């Protein structure tokens, strides 16, 4: 397994392709295809300048399955790394099955007309991937991705069972813009405007979006307000850790972000139902995304750190009673930009996409069917995080979280 085809040419793809090129022993042949070829060419040029490695580029609409099948076969890809948008997950999985390639992504499938982040569409492909002798690895970004691996590492090395889990995602970076999103604006806004949902006593508990929050002191960022949200790894984490009493996801937002988002929501700009404008059907959120700053343009101006991690409480492996551990990574926007030309939100997603791909290409992780990160051995992935720019730390806390 040594020829990879990366789909999508945004910030996440840019980081992933740079990191693959920096590891040419694992990724000797890299192909990059997206809707806009000039964006692929710009990434390839930067990769050439920074690493000396060549990346072949192509134009593709990933929703056109026959065109995808042709491209996978033409380049001889064994692994397709989907870094386009969640809408393209199923057509790319279909193309992989037909062309005989393994599959990896960083975000679960979402229908365009419904902001529903659920794994069942992709889990339904399990038998087909199994019969074809192929592997699909879902959610190899940071969250989902690293947060899932962090949790399973704690369960392997520190805790026999997990009673409560809190995932805390803080982007302490300042990009100098009044309002911008750090990854694809359409996907980001669909995510944060959806109702919050957390797992408690075997059921989902739903609360209105952005209503429940808590201050939290993040190392190398400071105290920020973290908001309860739904995030897709809660679904896989609760499936693979059925003993959990409660699992929650928190993300920080500044007052300016909340103020702008509230106004945009109130005036209908975040809607995903089509409206007619000058005789043409448009989707308000897509129009908004088109006028917002492009996430990949924020790299140069973003200063500060991200701090993302998991706090898990449960029965200690060594039989010493209930223990609480906090495992996290702190990533500098400036250092991420210096290394790859992209800010830390793209970096913290693109690096795990490279590492997940490396796990598959080297055979460290293997299987036939559709898998989540939770099902794999966390150790080799955790080693690569330390070696490839996302070092992590783990600390024992005095007790469970009190929020
Ligand atoms: P961008 O919007 O910057 O990039 C998406 C890329 O996909 C663009 O180059 C776009 O093309 C391309 N694309 C869109 N539709 C198609 C299509 N039909 N065919 C081919 N290419 C297409 O997004 P990001 O780089 O910020 O994010 C990439 C992915 O990573 C998203 O799925 C996002 O949800 C996920 N993500 C995951 C995170 C995690 O931690 N797990 C965190 C952050 C993001 P064009 O340039 O023409 O628009």
Descriptive overview:
With 403 residues, the protein is α/β, with parallel strands linked by helices. The chain folds into two domains: 3-138, NAD(P)-binding Rossmann-like Domain (Rossmann fold, 3-Layer(aba) Sandwich); 146-342 and 392-397, Dihydrodipicolinate Reductase, domain 2 (2-Layer Sandwich), CATH 3.30.360.10. It contains 14 helices and 18 strands. It has helices at 11-22, 37-51, 65-75, 89-99, 120-123, 126-131, 146-157, 185-193, 233-240, 255-266, 284-291, 333-340, 344-362, 378-387; strands spanning 3-7, 29-34, 55-59, 79-82, 102-105, 135-138, 159-171, 196-200, 203-207, 213-218, 222-229, 246-252, 275-277, 280-282, 305-316, 322-332, 369-372, 392-397. The strands form three sheets. Strands 7, 8, 9, 10, 11, 12, 15, 16 and 18 form a nine-stranded mixed sheet that branches. The chain has a seven-stranded parallel sheet with strand order 3-2-1-4-5-6-17, sandwiched between helices. Strands 13-14 form a two-stranded antiparallel ribbon. Strand 13 and strand 14 form a beta hairpin. The longest helix has 19 residues, at 344-362. Bound molecules: NADPH dihydro-nicotinamide-adenine-dinucleotide phosphate. Residues 4-137 form the Saccharopine dehydrogenase NADP binding domain. Residues 141-390 form the Saccharopine dehydrogenase-like C-terminal domain. This is Saccharopine dehydrogenase family protein.
């Amino acid at each position: 397994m040594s020829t990879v085809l990366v789909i999508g040419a945004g910030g996440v793809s840019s980081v992933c392709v740079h990191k693959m090129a920096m590891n040419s022993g694992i990724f000797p042949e890299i192909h990059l295809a997206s809707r806009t070829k000039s964006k692929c060419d710009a990434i390839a040029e930067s990769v050439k300048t920074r690493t000396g490695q060549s990346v072949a580029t192509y134009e593709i609409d990933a929703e056109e399955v026959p065109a995808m099948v042709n491209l996978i076969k033409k380049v001889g890809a064994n692994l397709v790394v989907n870094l386009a948008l969640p809408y393209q997950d199923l057509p790319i999985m279909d193309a992989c099955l037909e062309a005989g390639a393994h599959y990896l992504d960083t975000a679960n499938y979402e229908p365009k007309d419904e902001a529903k982040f659920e794994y069942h569409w992709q889990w339904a492909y399990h038998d087909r991937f199994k019969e074809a002798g192929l592997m699909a690895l879902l959610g190899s970004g940071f969250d989902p991705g690293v947060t899932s691996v962090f949790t399973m590492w704690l369960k392997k090395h520190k805790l026999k069972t997990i009673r409560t889990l809190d995932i805390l995602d803080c982007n302490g970076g300042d990009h100098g813009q009044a309002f911008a999103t750090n990854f694809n604006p359409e996907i980001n806004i669909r995510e944060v405007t959806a109702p919050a949902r957390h797992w408690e006593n075997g059921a989902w508990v739903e609360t209105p979006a952005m209503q429940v929050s808590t201050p939290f002191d993040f190392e190398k960022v400071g105290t920020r307000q973290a908001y309860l949200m739904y995030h897709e790894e809660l679904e896989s984490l609760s499936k693979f850790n059925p003993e959990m009493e409660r699992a929650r996801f928190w993300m920080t937002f500044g007052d300016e972000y909340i103020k702008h988002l509230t106004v945009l929501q109130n005036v209908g700009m975040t809607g995903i139902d089509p409206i007619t404008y000058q005789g043409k059907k448009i989707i308000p959120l897509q129009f908004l995304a088109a006028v917002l700053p492009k996430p990949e343009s924020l790299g140069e101006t973003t200063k500060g750190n991200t701090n993302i991690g998991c706090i898990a409480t449960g029965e200690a492996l060594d039989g010493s009673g209930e223990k609480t551990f906090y495992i996290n990574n702190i990533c500098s926007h400036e250092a991420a930009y210096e290394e790859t030309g992209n800010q830390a939100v793209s970096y913290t997603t693109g690096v795990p996409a490279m590492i997940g791909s490396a796990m598959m290409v080297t055979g460290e992780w293997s299987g036939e069917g559709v898998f989540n990160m939770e099902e794999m051995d966390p150790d080799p992935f955790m080693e690569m995080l330390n070696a490839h720019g996302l070092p992590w730390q783990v600390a024992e806390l005095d007790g469970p979280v009190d929020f």
